[in-house]
Amino acid sequence: MQTATLPTPVTQPRSAPPEPVGTGVRSFSLTINGAEYELNVAPWTTLLDALREYLDLTGTKKGCDHGQCGACTVLVDGKRINSCLTLAVMHEDHQITTIEGLADAQTGDLHPVQQAFIDHDAFQCGYCTPGQICSAVGMINEGRVKTDADIRELMSGNICRCGAYPHIVDAIRDVMQLNPTAQ
């Protein structure tokens, strides 16, 4: 039987590694849910982290942080994106909509997709729901859905661990039948 020997402790302090080039903070503005926000963040800050950590818009969820689950889906210029896969600085001249911005700010009325998710019980634990709803709104904006199979295929990037998929499809179908141009 061999015994492992512990490494000899370093007696001299190590010098700090050199600071990487370009690590400074960047100042820019983002338009989110119709309001303009000034940010001072590192250039590698994801849109997801800017929303949650710097702007306290925590409706957008961090799931996998690798673009595989869809929990972080938001709308940029009406198109759905995974906010964990894009840098905040890339969206300075874009309109960003999160789950917090879908309801009518004047009346407080929910977006038709939000209401349909409630009406069809299209969520269980609710963690994926903001991303599911934003993705559904973006998918409806794309105008490519004709069948339930289309809904299932085009929503396949949004994972629901609870398995509420049949209700999600029902909710989206309901909105499309009632108002196929819902935005």
TrEMBL record:
Residues 26-102 form the 2Fe-2S ferredoxin-type domain. SUPFAM superfamilies: 2Fe-2S ferredoxin-like, CO dehydrogenase ISP C-domain like. Pfam families: Fer2, Fer2_2. Residues 1-23 are annotated as: Disordered. Keywords: 2Fe-2S, Iron, Iron-sulfur, Metal-binding, Oxidoreductase. PROSITE patterns: 2FE2S_FER_1, 2FE2S_FER_2. Residues 1-14 have a biased composition (Polar residues). Gene3D superfamilies: 3.10.20.30, [2Fe-2S]-binding domain. GO terms for molecular function: 2 iron, 2 sulfur cluster binding; metal ion binding; oxidoreductase activity, acting on the aldehyde or oxo group of donors. PANTHER family: OXIDOREDUCTASE WITH IRON-SULFUR SUBUNIT, OXIDOREDUCTASE, IRON-SULPHUR BINDING SUBUNIT-RELATED-RELATED. This is 2Fe-2S iron-sulfur cluster binding domain-containing protein. It comes from Rudanella paleaurantiibacter.
